[in-house]
Amino acid sequence: MSTRTSRTIEMRPADRADQAFMEQLFASTRSADQRMDACDARTEALLMALQFRSRQAQLHMLHPYAEVAIIAECERPIGALHVHYGSDEIRILDFSLLPASRNRGIGLGLLRSLQAQGVRMRVPVRLEVLPGSRAQRLFQRCGFTLNGANGLYLCMEWQPPLLT
């Protein structure tokens, strides 16, 4: 999944050397109410690392052939994208950017790229998102529609024009 989406943004396959960055990225996506304020910093870091490893194991167990890419700007990691390319769908499993890289159109550009792949493959793009999040609003602006719920998450999908 090595792709260049602009002059400065590119994606490359993640490898073992990216684990520390991906753990930092995971921690940056936790909102204040998801953090463990009652813990000291060391305990919170340990619990965050355990949550990260658990999430990674869950994604790998459910989607063993998913592609994991590092999003880089001028060769500096700024995010990660986990995508499963199935015969009947493209499923975005996780899509995260560091806080300083949000609200700059990077996520929008990458999302549009995935939608273009959906058109080429003639399959929908699907994902799950927390209700009321900024990510949900981004997905809605890109034409994703609500398609049910799964526990805490809303299920959303985007259908290529040829499939609607």
Automatic annotation (TrEMBL):
Single annotated GO MF? acyltransferase activity, transferring groups other than amino-acyl groups
The cross-references to SUPFAM superfamilies, in alphabetical order and at most eight, read: Acyl-CoA N-acyltransferases (Nat)
Pfam families cross-referenced by the UniProt entry: Acetyltransf_7 (PF13508)
Query: N-acetyltransferase domain: from which residue to which, for each copy?
Result: 9-161
Q: Which domain of life is it from?
A: Bacteria
Q: Which residues form a coiled coil?
A: none
Transferase among keywords: yes
Among its keywords, does the record have DNA damage? Answer: no
The cross-references to InterPro entries, in alphabetical order and at most eight, read: Acyl_CoA_acyltransferase, GNAT_dom
- Keywords, in A-Z order: Transferase
Q: What is this protein called?
A: Acetyltransferase (GNAT) family protein
